[in-house]
Amino acid sequence: MKTSVLGYPRIGSKRELKRASEKYWKLSISDAELLQTGRDIRKQNWLLQQEAGVDHIPSNDFSFYDQVLDMSLTLGCVPSRYQQVKEESSRLDLYFAMARGIQRDGYDITAMEMTKWFDTNYHYIVPEFVKHQTFDLDATKVVEEYKEALELGVQTRPVLIAPVTFLLLGKEKESGFSRLDLLDQLLPVYFDLIEQLVDLGVTQIQFDEPCLALNLDDAARDAVTQTYTQISHRFPRLEVTLTSYFECYGDNLETVLELPIHALHLDLVRCSAQLGDVLASPKLDEQLILSLGVVDGRNVWKNEFQSSLSTIAQAVQQLGSERVWIATSCSLLHSPCDLDLESNATQLPDAVKGWLAFAKQKVDEVVTLRALALGVKAEDVLQALVANKKANEERKNSGFIHEPKVKRRVERLAPSHSQRVSSFLSRQELQRAKLRLPLYPTTTIGSFPQTPEVRSWRAKFKLGDLTQGQYDQLIQKETEATIRFQEEVGLDVLVHGEFERNDMVEYFGEKLEGFVFTQFGWVQSYGTRCVKPPIIFGDVYRRRPMTVKWSSYAQSLTDRPVKGMLTGPVTILQWSFVRNDQPRATTCQQIALAIRDEVCDLEAAGIGVIQIDEPAIREGLPLRREDWKRYLDWAVECFRISASGVQDDTQIHTHMCYSEFNDIIDSIADMDADVITIETSRSEMELLDAFVEFKYPNEIGPGVYDIHSPRVPSQEEIERLLHRASELLPVGNLWVNPDCGLKTRQWPETKQALQHLVNAARKLREEVAVEA
What we know:
By secondary structure, the protein is an alpha/beta fold. The protein folds into 2 domains: 2-396, TIM Barrel, CATH 3.20.20.210; 422-771, Alpha-Beta Barrel (TIM Barrel). The protein is 44% helix and 12% strand. The model has no long low-confidence stretch (mean pLDDT 95). It is globular and about 75 Å long.
């Protein structure tokens, strides 16, 4: 019986990679210094797993930005617009240009599109394919990291994003072909890569094929069969470990069990029932090893050893221990690094801390489960079992998880709680009369740049180095300056800037009951963007208003409307580590009622435009279509509960970013937000097609400015995007805005970009006036 970790966090336990990468982008450290930071993190990760006793330690799970982008470079899948960068710059600069765009040294090139990694809050860089796509191997990263581990005395199992998943994650950038048509051109490059690894002595490779968690058609399943049949034929001694995660194999299972592979990984956290299906299948090969993903790679709760041991015993009874591996359910990329770093009992009470396990602790859980399953009687192993049972029992029996009044309020929810008073068209008329906005009204998504100075105020306040009064004065000054800037630049609907907020979910979690927090519980969202998800341990409710103070202050400074800014219930749920002792829908309803209270208080305070951000609605969608309706029913209901307590003339906005909407557009419409803002800049307005085909009835702001890139779009570029949008949607329903909040940007680029945005909107208004 072996142990296996599918991947480990690469940001560093204290975000060392983030700091080094951002210094590199600012040209304050060399590429050699950045590369050394990467080596230091990999060394720490490999040695930690080796010392814990893990048998299958991953390599090539590290990335400076994104593992899919890494694979694009490895396979030579570089869009033609980066050709000059490729010829003139280093591989590292090319890599970051593809991820972030580039606007310096004579270059002005947009970034590649970014979207969510399956149903997680991690974002990957979308591969781009053309009809006559060519691939060209650059094995440097994969090979060098394997050799680097060997030099440390660590034998690793290289991890590769598998061919079919790589193609399905990408996008055709011209018509007339399917990306799966490229498999025959792609496979020889994979074979060359495998051959280089085999020549180094690699005997086992982990092929990540998470597309097998999706509803695939026959063509995709045939492509999977073709891939592994050819790999087996060319490399008969290679031990292929096939991994999929986040869901069952479902109707792909028959195909999977017929593949010529050495080991098959099962995510038994997200789909425990599939073990029985596999063991009962007549197609189960008598030599196939099963990798049992019993340790949760995506949540922070301690494993229940007794439950996992029962699952392991079920497999061992039929297969024998030599055909069973104990593993994480997926890569630990989605987990914080190390619970041992948490020392603030005010933020994370000891009682709750005792229920948790982060990546380092999950590695230990994998190894301990193996020892227990094999009947090892060592004292430390037996003590671990006793401690695990005690912690889980204490959590189940804890008195401060449950709040009866919250449960009663959820039980009393009625259909009327999720309905606005009137239809959208009636509301729209009242809102236009109240707000008196021009055509192409301009706004931003909420946050403005959080400078090091602003972040230092918050840190000093938390440490007690600033009094509440001193802190408030500083935030007031920054808020007023931002209101004045928005007035000067000519924005129509303003925001207060959110300078008092750390993260759009963490901030609300800190003000709601039922949440706890960490100091170092960072996980990667995209690139160097790390978030510190709060932990929902108990029933959620609001004791007092959370945002009214700063929204009201900002509104008092201007005659223009100021949006109240809230994070929606589904996003708070999705971007937190959620309790696993009750249905997620129930927890979401509790959050929705808390947000509803805040929306009503904002309206009562005179805030006439309120934005309830829900970027995670699409992210939470189950991977299999047969499960969609059940999720969408409660997710949409929760948004509507949060938004439906106001009068018709209060305008409700929502925001969504980096999502495909085609297949859920009817549910987006059912949310019945008065205005929706979405990301469309990187996709050149492609995402609007879903809204056009559906004839989306409400107002919409297609993002015209990519805030995830440091480049500043020209006025002409924004005008072009707006003309495209105006051809697709009624001009009277169009808003003009960036595609996300501006928190991560710098002030100079923000001011320039927003001036271009406002000027472009004014130009289009003039064109409409001339035509009229």
